[in-house]
TrEMBL record, chain A:
It is a multi-pass membrane protein. CDD domains: TM_PBP2. This is Carbohydrate ABC transporter permease. It is found in: Cell membrane. InterPro entries: BP-dep_ABC_trans_perm, MetI-like, MetI-like_sf. It comes from the Bacteria. PANTHER family: INNER MEMBRANE ABC TRANSPORTER PERMEASE PROTEIN YCJP, MALTOSE TRANSPORT SYSTEM PERMEASE-RELATED. The chain crosses the membrane at residues 12-33, 73-93, 105-128, 140-161, 182-206, 237-259.
UniProtKB/TrEMBL annotation, chain B:
GO terms for cellular component: ATP-binding cassette (ABC) transporter complex, substrate-binding subunit-containing; maltose transport complex. Residues 4-235 form the ABC transporter domain. This is sn-glycerol-3-phosphate ABC transporter ATP-binding protein UgpC. It comes from Aquitalea palustris. The keyword Nucleus does not apply. The keyword Nucleus does not apply. Keywords: ATP-binding, Cell inner membrane, Cell membrane, Membrane, Nucleotide-binding, Transport. The gene is ugpC.
Amino acid sequence: MSVAHSRLRYGITTAVAWSLAILVFFPIFWMMITSFKTEEQAYQLSVIFQPTLQSFREVFARSDYLSFAGNSIAISLGVTLLSLLLAIPAAYSMAFFPGPRTQKILLWMMSTKMMPSVGVLLPVYLLWKNSGLLDTVSGLIIIYTLINLPIAVWMAFTYFCEVPKEILEAARIDGANTWQEIFHLLLPMSLPGLASTGLLLLILSWNEAFWSINLSSSHAAPLTVFIASYSSPEGLFWAKLSAASLLAVAPIMVLGWLAQKQLVRGLTFGAVK
Amino acid sequence: MASVNLRNVSKRYGDNPEVMRDINLDIQDGEFVVFVGPSGCGKSTLLRMIAGLEDISGGDLLIGDDRMNTVPPAKRGIAMVFQSYALYPHMSLYDNMAFGLKLAGKSKSEIDAAVRKAASILHIDHLLDRKPKALSGGQRQRVAIGRAITREPKVFLFDEPLSNLDAALRVKMRLEFSRLHQDLKTTMIYVTHDQVEAMTLADKIVVLSAGRIEQVGSPKTLYHHPANRFVAGFIGSPKMNFIDGTVSAIDAETVTVQINNGGLQQVCVAARGIQPGDKVCIGVRPEYLQLDSDHPVIKATVSTVEGLGDFSYIYAASASAEEPLISRIPDTLEVADGSQIGFSIKPHHCHLFDSQGEAMPRTTPPTQH
Ligand SMILES: Nc1ncnc2c1ncn2[C@@H]1O[C@H](COP(=O)(O)OP(=O)(O)OP(=O)(O)O)[C@@H](O)[C@H]1O
Ligand SMILES: [Mg+2]
């Protein structure tokens, strides 16, 4: 009876999980198919067709994919490094030397994520324009870092909280200064967590579209701008749009897939312990 | 090698009220000192202030002849072993023990010699390549001690180092601590909850309660001459019995007490600040509370008998005491649950406490039978 019951439950959970996975994956799957169709075929729902690389050829001919991709890589790596560089010391002090307001600061930082970005678009645009940061890679790195820093600090903070305080105290007695504590102990001990923080930052900044579209046009434009350039003015070209999108998301999807174990482990670190 | 002196030391966390105050303590060079006291009384706080892991809010800490209040932990000449071992999980045992020396910029050969020496003292030579994860609790504890030894400290600090080990291993490690102290002859300060550890290891026990020192003395002194009711109740297991009464007469070397709902009991103490008619409390250890059906001074009803082999403990409810009386009797005596019994006490086995809980000085050597 209870075996049958738990089987049934297992069956239902599996079905729900699969449905969700398919629901999430379907648009990506459809995009992949469409990118190998011609523009005419793109309007048909059929999944049986003669695959062609025509859209990809046109996309490559029309725009400089490598320049967009290069910007995406530079920006993502820059954001990831800069965010970690700022988040680690911040999280260190919050985790190991908390003051009476530490919790409030953490919550406040997170609350900034709830504000719609468009609410500050105008001031940010003007600031960036006046300081010559518009359409520069560093300008995008700065804004993305600002956006993602709360997540980075929060995650690093959670991982640091898992490190027993006494281990750092033992190191202090052994003569380690703050930097030695961080480099010899804290970083190696929370490496899995920090690695997934880094991965998440990489993915988030790769996928960020709102600010890149508004703050860059050509020179510093990353792949999100590249996709967007296929969507509007001359009408809809589904096949080319799909090909461009596939080219844009492919690198990060491969990376995500390679690192999925690491990501899951890092993100559930606190939960399972 | 160094003495440790605390002068009027106090501690407060943030804006909270003081958790420790007026701590005055002199620890001689080479002494083994044990801090005991109930949970939350400030043992760890005191140890951590000596280590430099907590700020000292007031007063002075001297190690050797130097004031250490603001000296960083690594420069105080101390080493600490934590209850949780606090090993560096990503380093091999060798690196765990070598870490401090590496930071101090010692040469490779010096480090190697120090680590190997500590490892051989603690019999962990064969484990040096392992990570802490791959060790048993007892082995981890040894590594933690080894790490402390390689620092060649002037003072060792131990915060409940054995409390995570099982009973058998605890006994074994206790003996090792004692051997270690004989070998190294270094000053050691040791925090524990365990009576037996305190009694067997200490040259000097410091009893703390609610952030104050209640008494400092050798294990024998604390056992036979507790300064107050708190220390009397805290040292010794099972606990000392406390029997309520009223002073009825005072002589030069004895006080006679009328026990509540009981008889007259002579107590060999010198009266200090008490007068006939004052409420007092007689203290007597379980081994000295004797079954006596002929001339009992206290009557009681047996509630439980615990047989432990050579002897048994009787727990008995009495109208003369708030808590059940505990008496140790030879195993050959048979006592049934629920039976009515009487106790008597020899005058020189009694302690006497005034209504404030302060002890009267005893006038007869306690070991006399
Ligand atoms: N970081 C802190 N902030 C505020 N109060 C603290 C802090 N650490 C300890 N205390 C308080 O100081 C007092 C002494 O604590 P301490 O840890 O020294 O006790 P302890 O004697 O070691 O207890 P235990 O036997 O349980 O280890 C306690 O009342 C405790 O609540
Ligand atoms: Mg403690």
